[in-house]
Design goal:
The chain has 117 residues and is α+β, with helices and mostly antiparallel strands. 40% of the residues lie in helices and 18% in strands. A hairpin with a 2-residue loop joins strand 3 and strand 4. The termini are far apart. Keywords: ATP-binding, Nucleotide-binding. One of its GO terms (molecular function) is ABC-type oligopeptide transporter activity. This is ATP-binding cassette domain-containing protein.
């Protein structure tokens, strides 16, 4: 569990909570920020070690540095997992092997970040 929290960049704030892994979670997760809730959800997802991981705007509340560390950790720890990122933030997609650009459900372009920019 701690490894999943570390990959999701959540280990630090969880270890600061009273009770650590047994800390109280208020209704709706009110005692966590939006970014913290996203990182906890990602930690939960990586625990499954599934062959596919789909992150649909899952890092939108994170700053770009934390997001970059998180995505790097996923790639390093799960090299055989196909990661599907859905994002409106171009910085999120810079490390992608392939980007599919969609508009109103129509495929407009396919390529690497540098090719599409």
């Amino acid at each position: 569990l701690w490894q999943a929290l570390e990959i999701a960049q959540a280990k630090d704030f969880v270890s600061e909570k009273e009770g650590l892994l047994d800390a109280l979670v208020e209704a709706g997760g009110r005692n966590f920020s939006g970014g913290q809730k996203q990182r906890l959800s990602i930690a939960r997802a990586v625990l499954r070690q599934a062959p596919f991981l789909i992150l649909d705007d899952a890092t939108s509340a994170l700053d770009t540095i934390t997001e970059s560390k998180l995505l790097k950790a996923i790639r390093e720890n799960f090299p055989n997992t196909s990661l599907i990122l859905i994002s409106q933030r171009t910085s999120t997609l810079q490390m992608a092997d392939q980007i599919l650009l969609l508009e109103k459900g129509e495929l407009l372009a396919v390529g690497k970040h540098d090719d599409l920019m």
